[in-house]
Amino acid sequence: KCYVVAQFMRGLGVPAEAGFCDVYGLDDEMLAMVPQPVLAVILLYPQDRKKESVASPSSTVESKLRGHILTDFTNKQLIWILPSVLRFLRRMKKWKRLILLLFLLAIQRPRME
Fold first, then answer.
1. How far apart are CA 23 and CA 10, in angstroms?
2. pLDDT of 69
3. What is the Cα–Cα distance from 81 to 40, expressed in whole angstroms?
4. Taking the CB of residue 45, how many other CB atoms lie within 10 A of it?
5. Interacting residues of 81 by C-beta distance below 8 A, sequence separation 6+
6. Is the confidence at residue 97, as pLDDT, over 50?
7. pLDDT value, residue 45
8. Residue 42 to residue 46: CA distance in whole angstroms
9. 64 has a pLDDT exceeding 50
10. According to the UniProt entry, what is the EC number of this protein (predicted)?
11. Structural domain spans, the chain
């Protein structure tokens, strides 16, 4: 299981019934190990922190989510996760969907430093 991504999604309000797992390859044997059905594939990759800080010094999103402080999620990584969240939201009730979208907009505001 992808513990970090799962915890982040739980903090966004995505219910525990949405599972996350690692995909180790795109060949048939590796894809056969992925639990079905799949709503989305999230590509996460290491970044060069030096380049990232030079490119956008204020791009780190720091949010307090249900008592946990999450750091080191850049705007780019958060935007890549959003399509997965939105696919899952189609199955949620409208009021829950609205609350989550408002929260996502709130954490994307630029910080004043």
1. 20
2. 41
3. 9
4. 6
5. 5, 8, 9, 42
6. yes
7. 58
8. 13
9. no
10. 3.4.19.12
11. 3-45+60-107
Long-range contacts of 62-65 (CB under 8 A, 24+ apart): 62/111, 63/11, 63/107, 65/8, 65/11, 65/12
Packing angle between helix 75-89 and helix 94-107, nearest 10 degrees? 180
What residues contact 34, with CB distance under 8 A and at least 6 apart?
A: 21, 23
Q: Which two tokens stand for residue 51?
A: 């380049």
Largest CA distance in the chain: 49
Q: Is the model more confident about 47 or about 110?
A: 47
Per-residue pLDDT reduced to its tens digit, 3-58? 777 787 788 777 888 788 877 777 888 888 888 887 777 666 555 555 555 444 44
Angle between helices 94-107 and 3-12 (to 10 degrees): 110
The Cα 20–Cα 9 span in angstroms is 10
Whole-Å CA distances, 48 to 18, 51, 54, 62:
30, 5, 10, 19
